[in-house]
Amino acid sequence: MFPFFLVSPDYRPRCSHPVFGDILTAAFGESITSAGFALSLSSIVGIVLSLYAGRLAHAKNAWMTIFILLLLILLSMFLGALSGGLATLTLLLIVMNFAYSCIEILLRTYISSQKGILDKKKIFSANYFAVNMGWALGPLLGAQVQGWQLNAIFYAGAIASLFPLIWLIIRTDVPREFRIQQVKNNKERLSTDSKKILRQEDFSSGKLFLLTLASFLGAFVYGNPVAYLSQHLVQHYSAQTTSSIVSLMMFTNAAVVLLFQHYIISKITRGNMLKFLMIATGCFVAGLIIFLHAGESRPAWIAGMFLFALGEVIFVPTLFLITDLIAPAYARGSYFSVQNLGATGAALSPFVMGYILSTEDSVVAFGFLGIVIFFSFLLIYCMRINQLRVNES
Question: How far is residue 258's CA from residue 10's CA, in Å, rounded to a whole number?
Fold first, then answer.
């Protein structure tokens, strides 16, 4: 059994926990704007650099690569507690985001290489559940730890990163299992002609470009909704009301993902992907309409986030399955590394939406989000998924 709790195949912005922003503002005297810029920059740069993970996916010993990447995260966390300036901490956050994104792509490639769509969905679901448990518990534990000491969250992160490392060392069967899978894939050597086909037919056909752009637009809307929704709330209501509503939304989002993701993923097939994505788009739009008219009504905000989270639970696994569907066996790593660029949408949305909310009415802001998610669905529709060959190998 591989440690699928190591990484999440979703689009949440890496290392974007608000506690990091608190450290940047409190310890280094940086403004909220500078702290936010540093966090988003580190996330975007780390994701872009992880394009190299497409090559790492074909490494002879991919398990050892993952082990080294986990050590990078551990070291970055430890040094983060000792860093003395914004530039140093930003660099360490870039390293963390890079390592996390690379592990994410490697494990997506591993899951995609399993035979049978049912096995892929089962493993993906287990991974998705475990990591979202981490996203649900992490902020609570981080807030508690920060109360003891300002930079204690780095030490806590370093300790937490030890667990998968120890697990990989103890479970000696894991390296063998992962190596066998890699040997299988390495037998599919590429000739000069097949490399030419990879460049001309796969990357130039437009399918990967459309999927990456659709991922970017989708992540822009659902990747970090609490960030721009809190910006909207702060503009209209008190800090106490904002904090209360945001807490309820975060709990609702986590609960929906944890309770419904397994059932929904099990029902998604090649034949109904577009129908599910259409339902997800409708959930997002309905959620945005509820947010716009929610006022200070807590039940309305919970209802809106419930629909929003349902849309996320459909969109995230469907994008994974579509990538698996269009990726040739010899280029899975490259496909997942390029498609992973869509995660930058989640990092950019708080800045873009912050600007729109500060200059335009909320109707314009939420209307813009509705258009963005509609275009995300439209791009996937243009790929004509139903006409593609299922990749079972």
Answer: 13
